[in-house]
């Protein structure tokens, strides 16, 4: 059985010449009890897709079913079957953490006693017990994020939509949430996950869909996507920034691909078809040129490589651009 089915999803904002087709014919099939990772650059259409599938945005084209219910004709049944955690924490800042969770439970038609019991369980699970009776406006960003995630789990939804759920969480909290997601899936839940952290998709997703400019440009398992990028990579961290250009020449000699340079970290990455033999040769060549290195390794392609190959830039660059936009917007608001 499939928990999510989408056929030819279309969403357009604006009209006439200024119309923007944010989602342009997206097809998705997500079997029950699996995790689908939805990746793509900022503005690719990920969040718009999630908002359509959760009935928060009307469909301009195509059709979709979630948990066996048609999103367009039976949105109330869809909402009763799902949990949703959006990009921004949707909590009442004037209520305490405990009150927020109790309210979420009542909105899901739990009795007051059931809502209180579930709130206590989630406060403990998300390490919020000590702050349970403080107004959530006093919470840090990470704490508000955890409270929002707890709210999406107040019941046991058949389908859970998580839109960049670990943004703002510290590494330990992120790993804790991964465990929560795995626990939900082992219990039969289906999860659609959008994320900026490629290692998150690699660790959690059964299948990954890469979306760009409103269209799906690649899909498959993590291993299948990595295989599309090609063989292994040699990574070198050069000790002296002044030696970067010479090191690039050395790495480029025995490679049939382009050497990628990160000047900030002094890291060079180049594809190799000869594996460990190529690595040994690079070490010898660098030594002959008296180029000192801090680190060198041979590794398989990662989802970061896939993202770069498909979209033309690293996700870190995307995240930096988002942060700059947020800072600019905050400055303008002041």
Automatic annotation (TrEMBL):
GO terms for biological process: daunorubicin transport; doxorubicin transport; response to antibiotic. SMART domains: AAA. Residues 315-334 are annotated as: Disordered. GO terms for cellular component: plasma membrane. It is found in: Cell membrane. It comes from Phytoactinopolyspora alkaliphila. Pfam families: ABC_tran, DrrA1-3_C. This is ATP-binding cassette domain-containing protein. Keywords: Antibiotic resistance, ATP-binding, Cell membrane, Membrane, Nucleotide-binding, Translocase, Transport. NCBIfam families: drrA. It comes from the Bacteria. It is a peripheral membrane protein. GO terms for molecular function: ATP binding; ATP hydrolysis activity. PANTHER family: ABC TRANSPORTER ATP-BINDING PROTEIN (PTHR42711), DOXORUBICIN RESISTANCE ATP-BINDING PROTEIN DRRA (PTHR42711:SF19). Belongs to the ABC transporter superfamily. Drug exporter-1 (DrugE1) (TC 3.A.1.105) family. InterPro entries: AAA+_ATPase, ABC_transporter-like_ATP-bd, ABC_transporter-like_CS, ABC_transporter_ATP-binding, DrrA, DrrA1/2-like_C, P-loop_NTPase. Its main location: membrane. Residues 4-238 form the ABC transporter domain.
């Amino acid at each position: 059985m499939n928990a999510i089915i989408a056929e030819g999803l279309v969403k357009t904002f604006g009209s006439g010449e200024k119309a923007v087709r944010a989602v342009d014919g997206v097809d998705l099939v997500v079997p029950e009890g699996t995790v689908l990772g939805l990746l793509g650059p900022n503005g690719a259409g990920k969040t718009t897709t999630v908002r359509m599938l959760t009935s928060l945005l009307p469909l301009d084209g195509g059709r979709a079913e979630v948990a066996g219910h048609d999103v367009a004709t039976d949105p109330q049944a869809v909402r009763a079957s799902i949990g949703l955690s959006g990009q921004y924490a949707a909590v009442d800042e004037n209520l305490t953490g405990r009150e927020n969770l109790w309210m979420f439970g009542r909105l899901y038609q739990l009795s007051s006693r059931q809502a209180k019991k579930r709130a206590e369980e989630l406060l403990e699970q998300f390490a919020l017990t000590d702050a349970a009776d403080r107004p959530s406006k006093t919470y840090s960003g990470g704490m508000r994020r955890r409270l929002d995630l707890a709210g999406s789990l107040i019941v046991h939804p058949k389908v859970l939509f998580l839109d960049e759920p670990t943004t703002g969480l510290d590494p330990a909290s992120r790993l804790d949430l991964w465990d929560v997601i795995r626990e939900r899936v082992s219990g039969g839940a289906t999860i659609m996950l959008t994320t900026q952290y490629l290692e998150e998709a690699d660790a959690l997703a059964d299948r990954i869909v890469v979306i760009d400019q409103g269209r799906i440009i690649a899909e498959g398992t993590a291993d299948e996507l990595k295989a599309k990028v090609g063989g292994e990579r040699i990574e070198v961290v050069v000790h002296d920034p002044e030696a970067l250009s010479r090191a690039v020449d050395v790495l480029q000699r025995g490679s049939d691909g382009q050497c990628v340079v990160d000047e900030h970290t002094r890291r060079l990455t180049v594809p190799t078809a000869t594996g460990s033999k190529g690595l040994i040769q690079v070490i010898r060549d660098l030594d002959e040129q008296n180029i000192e290195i801090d680190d060198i390794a041979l590794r398989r392609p990662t989802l970061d490589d896939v993202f770069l190959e498909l979209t033309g830039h690293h996700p870190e660059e995307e995240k930096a651009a988002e942060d700059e936009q947020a800072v600019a917007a905050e400055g303008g608001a002041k």
